[in-house]
Every structure is written in structure tokens, then in C-alpha cells.
């Protein structure tokens, strides 16, 4: 990799991989959480993520390149941690906390990835047909993060905090 354009393609391919993987991950978490609000939120974001995948495919097409996916170590780390905890935790409410935290971590990583992609696209003067889809995905990630923040302070989660925190 010798130039900014190739770095952009590399990072775009990583984000494409992340979004593709998240469709299945969000579906799994929506099915496995026992919190109805969280389940609906994961299901809704899964549907948004399918659209985000399509937008990234549009970006590749605008660059006159086939869509390609590249592993993203940071996403794999978050997923590995979630799976390990999922295997060790028997308490449904505690597992809901794991899902909430994994969701928030993933959204933060995605927001940062889209910020970086947008910055590089601006520097390369790639134009609106590249920048707009990236910005739309970023906006949806921000919205999903805010929804998770709201869940973090919801009554049922607060009762879990009370149950788990020593007096």
C-alpha cells in the first residue's frame, strides 16, 4: 500500500466486511436477548445494516471497483469477547448487559471508521457519490449508539445494576 487511495480502499473493504458480518451478529443478538426493547433495537439495526452494505457496494461501484471484504481485527476482537462471555454466562440479564456493551463498542468503532473514511474521501476529493453513502451510514451508526445509550439507563437495566452491585 503506497498511497492514500489504496488506504481508503483497504479501510472501505474492512468496513464492508464488518457490515456484512453484523447482519448475522445483530440477528443472533436480537434472537438471544431476553430484553424486548433490546431485541427490537438489534432487529431494526440489522435491517439498517443491510442497507449500509448496499451503500458500501454503491461506493465500490462509484470507484469502478468490485466490492471486496477484508478482515477487521478490531471487530473480530469484539466478537470473540462477546462469544466467550456468552458461553460463560448463565444469567439472562447479565447476558443482556454483554450484548448491550458489545453493541455500544461496535457502534463506536463503526462511527470512528466512517469518520476516517469520510475524511480520506474528502482529502482525495472523491465527490458526493462516495461521501454521501458514507455519511448516511455514519448517521445511522450514531442513531443506533444513542438508542443503546438510552437502553443503558432504562429501568430494567437499572434494576439489573442494582441487583449486581454490592450494597
From TrEMBL:
Pfam families, sorted: DUF892 (PF05974)
Domain of life the protein comes from: Archaea
UniProt protein name: DUF892 family protein
Amino acid at each position: 500500500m503506497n498511497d492514500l487511495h489504496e488506504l481508503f480502499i483497504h479501510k472501505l473493504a474492512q468496513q464492508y466486511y464488518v457490515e456484512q458480518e453484523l447482519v448475522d451478529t445483530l440477528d443472533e443478538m436480537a434472537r438471544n436477548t431476553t430484553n424486548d426493547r433490546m431485541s427490537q433495537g438489534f432487529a431494526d439495526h440489522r435491517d439498517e445494516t443491510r442497507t449500509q452494505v448496499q451503500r458500501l457496494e454503491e461506493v465500490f461501484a462509484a470507484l469502478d471497483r468490485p466490492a471486496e471484504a477484508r478482515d477487521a481485527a478490531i471487530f473480530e476482537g469484539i466478537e470473540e469477547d462477546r462469544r466467550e462471555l456468552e458461553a460463560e454466562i448463565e444469567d439472562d440479564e447479565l447476558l443482556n448487559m454483554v450484548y448491550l456493551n458489545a453493541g455500544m463498542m461496535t457502534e463506536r468503532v463503526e462511527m470512528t471508521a466512517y469518520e476516517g473514511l469520510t475524511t480520506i474521501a474528502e482529502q482525495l476529493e472523491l465527490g458526493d457519490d462516495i461521501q454521501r453513502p458514507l455519511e448516511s451510514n455514519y448517521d445511522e451508526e450514531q442513531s443506533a449508539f444513542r438508542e443503546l445509550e438510552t437502553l443503558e439507563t432504562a429501568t430494567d437495566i437499572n434494576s439489573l445494576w442494582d441487583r449486581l452491585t454490592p450494597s
